[in-house]
Every structure is written in C-alpha cells, then in structure tokens.
Design goal:
- The chain has 138 residues and is mainly α.
- The chain has four helices and no strands.
C-alpha cells in the first residue's frame, strides 16, 4: 500500500515539475526569439545554417509552439486551446516581423520569414495533434 502511494506521488510530482519546466523553457525561448529577432547582427559572427535562415525561422517557431503547448496545456482548459495557441503564435510572428521593420535600423520584415514561422507553427500543431491522437488510442 505504502509503495503504491509513494509511486503515485512520485509520478504526480515528476509530472508537475516537467510541466513547470516546459513553462520556464517556453518563457526563456520566447525571450531568446525576441532578442534574436530584434538584435543588431552587425557585430555577430556569421553562422552557417543548412538551407538558409528560413530553416532557423521554422525551427524557432516549431519549438516555440511545442514549448508553450506543453507549458500551458495543464492550466488552460479551453476546448480549442491548441488552435488559440496557433493564432497567438502566428500573431507573435507577425509582430516580430513588424517590429523588425519599425524598430531596427538594419533588419527588415520579410514575408518569407513569416511564411517559415507559420509553417513551423503549423508543423508543431499537427505533430502534437497526431501525438495526442496516438496517446488516446493506447
């Protein structure tokens, strides 16, 4: 009996810590994406990214969506939380492109950056959708 109870609380505590870690990571990732989007890149060393910078945009927003999804899913009980998060993430991407155009001297908004951001977000959405469907089947 004691062992079952101990196992139950170990699982519960581990789950709570991992959800909180996702939320902390989501916040840190958001700060990183914001700084990377708005910082001047003049004095930064050149980084070679396979494909081009659109790959980085895709990865940034894919990870952004996934971290926020797992960080918030326990707290948000709305039936369509995932779709709301897609819209919020897309809006964030639009804002970052707008801010690049208006607030920085050497960065400009790029429709293809926004497109890569959107594809990364939607890929995260569909992978999580698939993940949740598979978990329900088990």
């Amino acid at each position: 009996m004691f062992q079952k109870l101990r196992h139950f609380y170990q699982v519960k505590i581990t789950k709570h810590l991992s959800e909180r870690n996702f939320l902390i990571l989501a916040i840190l990732w958001t700060i990183g994406v914001t700084v990377a989007s708005l910082a001047s890149l003049k004095n930064m060393p050149a980084i070679s990214i396979p494909g081009n910078d659109k790959t980085a945009h895709f990865v940034f927003y894919f990870v952004f969506f996934v971290l926020w999804y797992f960080g918030l899913k326990r707290f948000v009980k709305h039936r369509r939380f995932d779709l709301i998060l897609v819209l919020v993430t897309l809006f964030y991407g639009i804002c970052m492109e707008f801010f690049q155009a208006k607030l920085t001297a050497n960065r400009q908004a790029d429709f293809y950056d926004f497109l890569a951001n959107s594809i990364g977000t939607l890929t995260g959405f569909f992978i999580i959708l698939l993940y949740t469907k598979i978990r329900k089947l088990k």
